[in-house]
Amino acid sequence: TYDYFEKRNVPYVKPVPFFGQVLSFFTQGRHAVDVASEGYRMFRNTRISGVFTLRTPAYLVHDPTLYKQMATKDFDHFTDHVTDFRIETDPILARSLFFTNGAHWRQHRSGLSPAFTGSKMRSMFGLLSKSAGDAMGRLLVFAAGKPFTMELRDLYSRLGNDVMTSISFGVEVDSLTDRDNEFFLKGKRLAQIDGLPGLKFLMATTIPRVFHFFRLSGMYKDVNEFYTDAVARNIQLRETNRINRPDFIHLLLQARKNTLGAEKHEDEALQDAGFSTVKEHTLEQKMGEGKMNWADIDIAGAAASFFFGGIETTTTLLCFTSYELAVNPDIQERLRAEIDEQRESLADGRTPTYEVLQKMKYLDMVVSEALRRWTPLGLTNRKCTKNYTFTNTDGSQVTIERGQNISIPLKYFHLDEKFYPDPLRFDPERFADPNNINQDAYVPFGAGLRNCIGSRLALMQAKCILFYMLSNFIIKPDTKLTIPIVIDETSAGLNAKHGFWMNLVPRSA
Ligand code: HEM
């Protein structure tokens, strides 16, 4: 087993017998993304390296151009993600876009894509902005004109939950006041990837046979039931009362009736939610594959994947952007000046529109740099679905065999000084001229046909919340904030060990 890479002339991280690289997760106190990307630091002159998870070999891609190629031109060889959930034990996760594979993924993705176009995002933007604006109003009342201390991860995950609940289900919740509402609590359990759920995810990825043998599930039973019931009740309510609201359930019901289309002209003008927006590729229809039949449970799976994929990541982006703004007051002031200038053009001087956010160049530079410096999803993966041969840097041929797992260290591309000089410095100026950015090595939302479906939504949401925050508050580091920030190495996502404690000073104070 352990001579797998030697035989193939691929450099690899020497495994600990039986455990492979997995032991380091538990013994070295390093972040899972860093442990999995170890080879990237060790071997500088290769396009790929090897690693063992327990006894299973897996590849780590070092060359962003190779990843782009695998994800686009040679996509047919890498159509799947690695985690394998089963419908019998994980009815929701197995139907969610991130975890579904093969023909079902193709049908699901082409069915969902028209729900994420620029024009759909614009019509949803009113709901998003209202939800964030209402929450900001409550925060101002709470402040009563005086500075106060707040942990921003908690604040942003509550705002993110409320926005997502509104644009997915058409239900308005207020998690700042009603702190234990069911959508917030279940959403938190759904997205929990630390502790026991994290271990189960790791098992489903690395030892799927053991995972399935014991009929384990990745998601809590009550969370499955919650989303299934919430969607079924919501659909029934809409159909009985003929409710028409520009949210995801509405769009998915249109998909069910085959009436969900894309408004090509409008979309062309609205494609760009910022430099980081990824391109949506057209999936070819395969012979005999047909279209997706959207049963209620498929709609529940899609909605749950938005909560699962969208809230933690967008919250992470907002937390680290706020941290950088707090420790770099000159950048914060410049961004606030841009926001204030745009506010003058707004009817009420307060509520941002989709178009206004799209126009804001410096806001986009700040967000793009935050996604680079603090990549929310530092590692993604693919499964090889058809043997694939390419030439390595030393001229040797490498063949990745069908069934092999591949990791892509997005974080390490972004922190490589080859692509970004002085990579640990937060410097929005890098994005002043997009021509200076190596597009292959800038992949916060992944690449190719299986990239993030929600990039436009994430960017518009993060920008909208930052617009409101800086319009109303000056963000200052609180005494409880650790500078430089200390990363929580035990979290499966990207988080601060001691929290994002900030002092929010109302601008009217
Ligand atoms: C800042 C926020 C976000 C970041 C950084 C992010 C990042 C990513 C990345 C890196 C991937 C994997 C791409 C690949 O394997 O090449 C992904 C996939 C995905 N994301 Fe996001 N994401 C964010 C927000 C969202 C939002 C708001 C949603 C939903 C509404 C979402 C839904 C998904 C889904 C469903 C997938 C799987 C796509 C597929 O397999 O076809 N994400 N995301």
Multimer state? single chain
Structural class: alpha+beta
Average predicted confidence as pLDDT: 91
Bound small molecules, which ones?
Answer: protoporphyrin IX containing FE
Largest sheet: 4 strands, mixed
**What topology, given as strand order, has the largest sheet?**
1-2-7-4
Provide a count of the helices.
20
Helix content: 40-55%
Total number of beta strands: 9
* Rg of Cα set: 23 Å
Q: Percent of residues in beta strands?
A: 5-15%
Order of helices and strands: HHHHEEHHHEHHHHHHHHHHHEEEEHHEE
What general form does the structure show?
A: globular
Straight-line N-to-C gap: 66 Å
Stretches where pLDDT falls below 50 for ≥5 residues? none
Q: What does this molecule look like?
A:
It is a single chain. With 509 residues, the protein is an alpha+beta fold. It contains 20 helices and nine strands. It has helices at residues 4-7, 22-27, 32-36, 38-42, 64-71, 102-112, 118-143, 152-169, 182-190, 195-206, 208-213, 221-241, 248-256, 264-270, 296-327, 329-343, 354-359, 361-373, 410-414, 455-472; strands at 48-53, 56-61, 148-151, 380-383, 388-391, 397-400, 405-408, 473-477, 501-506. The protein has a four-stranded mixed beta sheet. A three-stranded antiparallel beta sheet has the order 3-9-8. Strands 5-6 form a two-stranded antiparallel sheet. Strand 1 and strand 2 form a beta hairpin. Helix 15 (296-327) packs across helix 18 (361-373). The longest helix has 32 residues, at 296-327. It is globular, with a radius of gyration of 23 Å. The N and C termini lie far apart (66 Å). Protoporphyrin IX containing FE binds at residues 71, 81, 97-98, 109, 305-306, 309-310, 313-314, 317, 376-377, 380, 410, 444-447, 450-454, 457-458.
